[in-house]
Design goal:
Blueprint: E1 2-8, H1 11-43, H2 49-59, E2 65-70, E3 74-77, H3 90-96, E4 99-102, E5 109-112, E6 116-122, H4 132-149, E7 154-157, E8 160-165, E9 174-184, E10 187-195, E11 215-216, H5 219-223, H6 229-244, E12 249-250
Parallel strand pairs: 1-2, 1-12, 3-4, 9-11
Antiparallel strand pairs: 2-6, 3-5, 6-10, 7-8, 8-9, 9-10
Length: about 250
């Protein structure tokens, strides 16, 4: 699986890059599907869904990626998100220099900014598990295991995608990683936003993920110290390899 750290990149450029990788994979899958149909017609074979899917999967040459990036300050709203969860007017957003994008991912409003690890897996889930819910739980598990390395006991909040600390303690629930994805023909894009040394004041301008009366936190806030970003990235990469059973290979 190819790993690329894109460094600092504006949101739209990274979105377009993800989309290009997704579409390359979709095109490969479309071609494989067409070849299967032609072979069936020429050979006069009867249609057997299980065999067809097995043949298709074995011939696929789709490529999986994990992209890391840091964005300049930006708010992004999921396709089913509520614009009322943005607490600043468009004029105020422009004044503060925060970009805003409506996206085609799931989830509601979230923030991306410096010192946050944003991970964009471009995965062919037919090579893993065609279950979006399971995929989301796996992304959560990557961050939960990473936080355990720092001595932080994190977990899940029922019905609320993402990674939380003290999710079952009313009044102390705080989110440290937001997750929102899109899939087309089982190819994923978008992903997770893990607050490392993130400036949490930006979250005061939104209702994060549309969830009222719950806090947002960062690794820095929980530990009471600045965290080395490269160390944090390496930890996330190792946990990603473990959870998804892959080997990440740098390919710039």
């Amino acid at each position: 699986m190819i790993f690329r750290d894109l460094g600092q990149m504006n949101y739209k450029t990274a979105w377009d890059y993800q989309e290009s990788l997704l579409q390359q994979n979709v095109k490969i899958k479309s071609g494989a599907s067409s070849r299967e149909i032609v072979a069936k017609e020429v050979n006069g074979e009867s249609f057997t869904p299980h065999r067809s899917q097995h043949t298709l999967n074995s011939e696929l040459t789709t490529q999986n990626y994990l992209l890391f990036v840091e964005h300049p300050p930006v708010f992004t709203l999921g396709k089913s998100g509520n614009i009322n969860n943005v607490l600043l007017s468009e004029e105020k957003l422009n004044e503060t220099g925060i970009e805003f994008f409506r996206t085609n991912r799931g989830g509601d409003i979230t923030f991306h900014g410096p010192q946050q690890i944003v991970g964009y897996p471009i995965l062919d889930l037919e090579k893993f598990d065609t279950d979006i819910g399971h995929y989301l739980r796996n992304l959560e598990e990557v961050i939960i295991l990473t936080l355990a390395d720092y001595g932080i006991d994190a977990g899940r909040s029922p019905g609320e995608t993402g990674v939380w600390i003290d999710p079952e303690t009313k009044g102390r629930e705080r989110k440290i990683c937001a997750i929102g994805v899109r899939a087309s023909r089982w190819i994923t894009m978008h992903g997770f936003a893990f607050n490392v040394n993130t400036d949490l004041s930006y979250f005061n301008h939104i209702i994060p993920c549309g969830i009222q009366n719950k806090q947002v936190t960062s690794l820095k806030k929980e530990l009471g110290r600045e965290v080395d970003m490269e160390e944090a990235k390496e930890n996330v990469k190792k946990k990603f390899e473990r959870v998804f059973d892959v080997e990440l290979m740098s390919n710039e």
